[in-house]
Amino acid sequence: MTHSLLNPVRALASMAVAGVALAAPSHASSPAELLAAYSKEAGVAPSPERGQRLFNTDFGTELRLRCASCHGAVPTQAGKDDLTGKTIRPLAPAFNPASFTDRARADHLFRLNCKDFVGRECTPGEKADVLSWLLTLR
User: In the chain, what are the helix, strand and coil shares in percent, each to the nearest 5?
Assistant: First the structure.
């Protein structure tokens, strides 16, 4: 019998189930660092205009929601999850110092919300565009 810590496949699977980020650093010390990482992955400069457009677009998915449905068209104040009724802290980093400081959390929320509202995962370029727009909000 092989102990699970001695089995690398099992160990990696356990880490994945536990939510350990294997591919990307889990902490960005600032939204600007996260923006730089997304921009580098995308290979193009981010566009705040594209980010605002994406944030406010209804993609016609089953839920018929968009980012702005819960966060507000200009996400500088608390929002409300339309499905759960839960209050959402402001998304713009200038109004919520914790926003976009954890890479793993940002990636997780982009993945969930993009799949629900865009109908697919967002690209690094789209993430950079949205974040670049959010960073313009003061």
Answer: 50, 5, 50
pTM of the model: 0.78
Residue 9 has pLDDT above 60, yes or no: no
> Could you identify the residue written with the tokens 């677009």?
57
Q: Which two tokens stand for residue 87?
A: 């209050």
Closest alpha carbon to 74 in 97, 58, 51:
51
Helix locations, the chain, DSSP H: 8-17, 31-42, 48-55, 67-71, 103-113, 124-134
- The type of residue at 94 is A
113 token code pair: 């919300």
Give the percent of the chain with pLDDT over 70. 80
